[in-house]
Design goal:
With about 220 residues, the protein is an alpha/beta fold. The chain has ten helices and six strands, in the order E-H-E-H-E-H-E-H-E-H-E-H-H-H-H-H. Helix 3 links the parallel strand 3 and strand 4. Helix 3 packs parallel to helix 4, helix 7 packs across helix 8 and helix 8 packs across helix 9. The longest helix is centred in the last third of the chain and has 14 residues.
Length: about 220
């Protein structure tokens, strides 16, 4: 985040929603909207020109109206990793969460569009994500993890397993996690297998195991 504040680009094809997001962000003097866009290509161009701290984007925009916001997040993770992404959506779909969190949860947010009406929630998300944190809407958590009734499913994990899961949530590969924690890659994989087993995570074509574990990790964090 810049010392002078948070620079934001807003991407949304609905003019009404786009104006609402810009208006909400303008209530915080530390946030500056430096550009708006309405489709995938113009958003990518705007982000490369403005180099914002945060992209706040709709999940479905032209040209296909499918998953443009998620594809933008993936593109920026590689080309502009310093830019955080907050996806705004009406949809609590596992495929979107998988795509957004592919590579880690740091600097990523996923909010329902109804949160726009609650300025404080949107503004808080911008600041958290700009600082490298993550924000996922509680309703999305409930939709994606409907059978996780335990308020803290991580209590079954050992301290080391929690450390490994925390590194995974930040986007660490097995190799990176091993280096950061001073473990062998084989040991890391054993810890990961144990984590999946203790959290009851099985193979699901709709949501991969690592992303499911990250979602559970985020759901258990203090809010």
């Amino acid at each position: 985040m810049n010392a002078s504040g948070v620079k934001v680009v807003v991407a949304e094809d609905s003019m009404l929603i786009r104006d609402s997001v810009v208006r909400a962000l303008s209530t915080d003097s530390s946030i500056e909207v430096v550009g708006v866009a309405a489709d995938y290509d113009s958003t990518l161009d705007m982000v490369h020109r403005q180099r914002p701290d945060i992209l706040v984007t709709d999940v479905r925009m032209p040209p296909t109206g499918t998953d443009e916001g998620v594809r933008l997040a993936r593109e920026l993770r590689t080309r502009l990793p310093e830019t955080g992404v907050i996806v705004l959506t009406h949809y609590a779909e596992s495929a979107y969460a998988t795509g957004l969190l592919d590579g880690g949860s740091a600097g990523r947010g996923y909010l329902l569009k109804e949160r726009i009406a609650r300025f404080d929630q949107l503004l808080n998300a911008v600041h958290v994500v700009a600082d490298g944190g993550s924000v996922l809407d509680p309703l999305i958590m409930e939709a994606l993890l409907p059978n996780r009734r335990d308020s803290d499913p991580l209590h079954r994990l050992t301290t080391r397993e929690r450390e490994v899961l925390g590194e995974i949530a930040l986007g660490g590969s097995n190799q990176v996690v091993a280096r950061r924690l001073g473990l062998s890659q084989r040991a890391v994989q054993k810890h990961i297998n144990s984590i999946f087993a203790k959290l009851g995570i099985t193979l699901d074509p709709a949501l991969d195991q690592r992303v499911t574990a990250v979602l559970m990790f985020l759901a258990a964090q203090p809010r």
